[in-house]
Structures are given as C-alpha cells and as structure tokens.
Write a structure and sequence with these properties.
alpha+beta, 2 helices
Length: 84
C-alpha cells in the first residue's frame, strides 16, 4: 500500500503496526521521502482488505488523501510487523 496525505509525524506507522498485528499480518511500514507511507503486508486476503479500509482513516491526527494497493511479488516473507 502507498498512503498519501498528512501521514508522517502523526504516529501513522506505529498505529499501522498495531492494527496489522491485531489482524495477524506480517510486514513493515516506512516513511518515504515524498511524505507518503509505504505499507508492505502479507497475510489472509480478508485481513489485508480490513487493513486497507483502516489505512483510509489511520490514527486520529492523520489526513489520508489516497491509498494505492499493489500486490507484493511472490516470495515476500516477513516475520512480525516492523516500522522503519
């Protein structure tokens, strides 16, 4: 996922990590230089759908303007969920 808007400096990555772990997803969330947040996640399709829905809201201080979803390449493997 690529999340755009006011998503840096508002605890977006930490909140995404909490939500992803609650949904039993693995992956990472990291800030990009353009001000967006990249979220790489693996897990059950219905849990990824739930995460996508949540990403449109994010934590209380976030103002999300767009969420783009692209599939990960086969073989992407993560343990836990990290922020970077």
């Amino acid at each position: 996922f690529l999340v755009s808007g006011k998503v840096q400096g508002v605890w977006f990555r930490a909140a995404t990590r909490e939500r992803a772990l609650a949904l039993q997803l693995q992956g990472l969330a990291r800030n990009l230089r353009d001000g967006s947040v990249e979220v790489l996640a693996t897990g059950a399709d219905e849990n990824l759908d739930a995460l996508e829905k949540w990403l449109w809201q994010g934590p209380p201080l976030a103002k999300v303007s767009a969420v783009q979803r692209q599939p990960l390449e086969a073989g992407a493997a993560y343990t836990g969920f990290e922020t970077g």
